[in-house]
Each structure stands twice: as C-alpha cells, then as structure tokens.
Amino acid sequence: MVRNAGANCVYAYSEQTRNIILGPNGSYHYCIEFDALPETPAGSPPPEGFIEPAGPFGRVWGFYPDMREALGWATAPEQTYTGQMPPIESSFGGGPFSMPQAPLPDGRVLYCGMRAATAGTCSIR
What we know:
The chain contains 2 helices and 7 strands; from the N terminus they run E-E-E-E-H-H-E-E-E. By secondary structure, the protein is an alpha+beta fold. The protein has one domain (2-124). The strands form 2 sheets. Strands 1, 2, 3 and 4 form a 4-stranded antiparallel β-sheet that branches. A 3-stranded antiparallel β-sheet has the order 5-6-7, with no helix packed on it. A hairpin with a 5-residue loop joins strand 2 and strand 3. Helix 1 crosses helix 2 (65-71). It is globular, with a radius of gyration of 15 Å. 20% of the residues are buried.
C-alpha cells in the first residue's frame, strides 16, 4: 500500500492479483479514501512474525475483507519516506499509456496506468 501524504486515500497493489490496483469489492480503483472509514480490527490475532496494519492502511485493510484477503498481514509497521512524484503530464509523455510513478523507499518505482490499455494495472520496477 502507498499513500501520498497530501491525499485522503491509499493505493493498494498486489502482484498476486495480476498487478491490478485493488479496490473495494474486488474492483480496481485508483485511490481508496480512508477518512470516513472506521477503525475495524481484523478480529483475530496476526500469525507469528506478522502485524496488523495501522493508521490509514489499517483502516482500508480492516474495513474491506477482500483487501485483507488479497494483501495479507503486514510484515512491518507503516514506513514514512519522502519521494518526488512527477506530474502526470510528464509521466511517459502524458499519452494514452501514461503511467504515474511513485518512488519507493528501496529505490524501486511503482508505475500505475490510468488511461487506455494501462488503466487499473501496476508494476514495480
């Protein structure tokens, strides 16, 4: 899951779900709003070595059972970092296959499509 600190939403992504941006009820969605969601605990303790997501990620993960199923338990606490997100217009020329980019703390980049054939798909490179 990735969150832009200036936005009231998170992006949920799983390579196990065919590189699709996850959304409520199994649909793809660009960004899932969390402010109106209640804190919803999973109802069972995490397996040994895992933790329950907290904060905005925990709100989305806890509220939508299909998100819990697709993403599983957290392996580490939420990590805050600073990354420079290019404007959408400059992502791969801004054409119909434009891929917004989110730099990740380990140096890789999350690319997510938003138009034409790339809509709803992501990859990490």
